[in-house]
User: Fold these one by one.
Assistant:
Number 1:
Amino acid sequence: TFLVWVNEEDQLRIISMQKGGDVKGVFERLARGINTVGESVKAECGKDFMLDEKYGYVHSCPTNLGTGMRASVHIDLPGWTAHSVDALKARCEELCLQPRGTRGESGGQTGCTYDISNKHRLGYSEVQLVQTMIDGVNTLYDEDLALQKKLFEFPNIQSTHSLVAKYVTKEIWDKLAKHITPTAGFTLYKAIACAVEFDNQHCGIYAGDWDSYKDFAAVFDPLIQEYHGISADAKHTSDMDSTKITGNVNPAAPVHSTRIRVGRSIDGYGLSPGITQEQRVGVEKLFSAASSKFSGDLAGTYYPLAGMDEAVRQQLVDDHFLFVSGDRNLQVAGMERDWPEGRGIFHNTEKTFLVWVNEEDQLRIISMQKGGDVKGVFERLARGINTVGESVKAECGKDFMLDEKYGYVH
């Protein structure tokens, strides 16, 4: 319960620890331990700990000046995890706390267990910082219980005639409500948020990652089968060979323009409703790098929404290319979080090939042109999809998500 690390990041890192939440007892032992170490060291050499009048106890890292103390607990917060890890981080900031995973500062977070500690070191006494941590953890715990009640109790599905209302039964809910998907930390509550919030949904459900379709299959499978009119053992077949298309739209028909688009998602990243901030930025970086290598009639420019020049923005508006925020359905589904970070638009020089990045799909790939040459538009789309897929894979080694049963994952 009492440790000292010698000559790691600090000359002496003095630690008090034990199972459970008796923070006061752990702090009391720490105080006694610090005094004992200090007195014993001074008895050996006549030296005190370095204590600066302005900056407190001296450490190699300026962030540790002052008390040099980090008081923390490991606590399970399943309600906050299911609600939003980003929201938990923001709440901790308000409470002057710092959340980490249990594997250390750079080890990431898994599951619902967090290391919650005081954020500050300098400008506050040790007692003040411990009290801040205790009060903040108690607040987070109370809020977590409230979130669990909200997120895990059978919800009031306002879209009573939706497919969600038909297939999310109390029995299914009780089995799946507490499950959190590994890729994006998605839950069934998040998936059906639109059916709960609105009374006008037909489907009313979104997947937050590929895991959602697998982990919540008891809901998704029958819903998908009914919506698409397919059997339980049906398998999707994709064919992008434009040479198999016979004929074209009659040239005399008054067709103004033709547009064909698809969505594609890179394996290993969340889908728009569940994708984490880090994953979304990662998708954008991957595509930005990949698109710089497009050649021929597909070559063009990527325009990130964040920090976009006003002249560029106006031109994209004039071209009817720009997607914008404010769709209530997308907002409730979680697709407009952290707007506009990690989002952007690519188009080729001729403005006949576009890719929207991190709107409703990770990648929305579009081929378009004036007139009714559908076959030509489809041929360009097929080449574009292949080019995007190959270029992205060259950057990260990942393919598009392609489900054996349901085809390309959205």
Note: The longest strand covers residues 257-264.
Number 2:
Amino acid sequence: MNFQKLSLIGLAIACILTLTSSQELCLVDTSGKRVPLRSINYNISIYETLANVEITQTYANDLDVPIETQYLLPVNPDAAFTKMEILLPNETVRMRVRGKDEAKKIYDEGKSSGKTVGLGSLQESALDIMSIKVGNIPAKSTVKIVIGYAENVEVQESLFYSMIVSSTLTPRYVSRLSPNTSVSISTGGVDFTWDIIATIYSSKGLQAVQSPTHQINVNYLEGKKTAKISFAQVEKPNRNFVLQFSTADIHQPTVILSEHTLYSTGETSYTAMISFLPELVSNPYNSLIISDNELTTIRKNRLASTRGEFIVIFDRSGSMGGSRIIKARESVIAFLNALPTDSYFNIIIFDDQYEAYSKEGSIKTSAESIRLASQFISSVSDRGGTEIYDPLKYVLQSKVANAEYPRFIFLMTDGDVSNTCLLYTSDAADDLLCVDLGGRRIIKKKK
């Protein structure tokens, strides 16, 4: 299915919006008037490894006339949308999926006739952003926008589960490869709170639940087969919320059975999802969820016993300025000093151009080669735009240092690029190679 040609009609959805010039997070109508966001509420239910998320946002139109709004929503390309609707005082507007042209026509006709309508479509230049329009929000009324979706919970080092709730959209650089791209995102402070309520269900029993980013309350029920999580204090959405948990017998397979009734026929069908987590890494620590430092030690020990060709693609663009570039340089230098002795490495730095540290290809690790490469990285400063495509193409088409040494590619970037679709479908990737960018693989498009 080509999602770029589909639109959601009849409903608007919202998660994190663009900011106005006054730095208040809100809906903005076509004349620039604001519809302030009053609250954001997340209701998350996690069944073993599957998370169902429902987001409810409340807005108030304090104006004396109906307005049309437009804003942006960050979406997970791997999520499956299950519910999208606008809750008005006297009616509910629900989503329907239509072709993009048909959806736009329905939206325009509904708006012209005075109906409250919504239109959502994926940005063709950025498949992780949905553009939302809501037409004819009634005067002096409160509107609730609801979105529901399901996604898999991520696994960390084959040891525990982790889920991230995004809280921000960052400014994005528009590539010279897509000059007609229009993805305008501004950032600033927020003047409202958010609330997250999560419930975890596990037939195996939960052993630990924590958040490395926020203070939370955890209430265990049913012999620790259920846990209810909430914020321990009032929070604003100024950073992502991360929830981590581990279960008993985490490496034993689990099955989730779902029942679904077709409204058109009344027939009932069932879907089963089987998941299993191989025990790839042993946990040498007593804690059930290990800390970031302990994870680093595990990875360092594993790396020390691995040989290969290691290539770092290093983002030096303007958005990496300040503390970002400092931390990035420190991270690469630490990485270089932890490389296995019997290996090869290279560094590619890029902004709107790119440069290879070793233009002849990857070089063998040694005390001297690591020292010189570290000096090179220490001198890198931020500048320019974010052209990820060209350095990726260069690396993926370059000759491997040694056929017996597996190649590992690390892309270090803040991810602020608009033309992600070029990365998904480019011919830069070989059929046997892939790059993971923010949890999404960049692979060669099949002919």
Note: The longest helix spans residues 323-337.
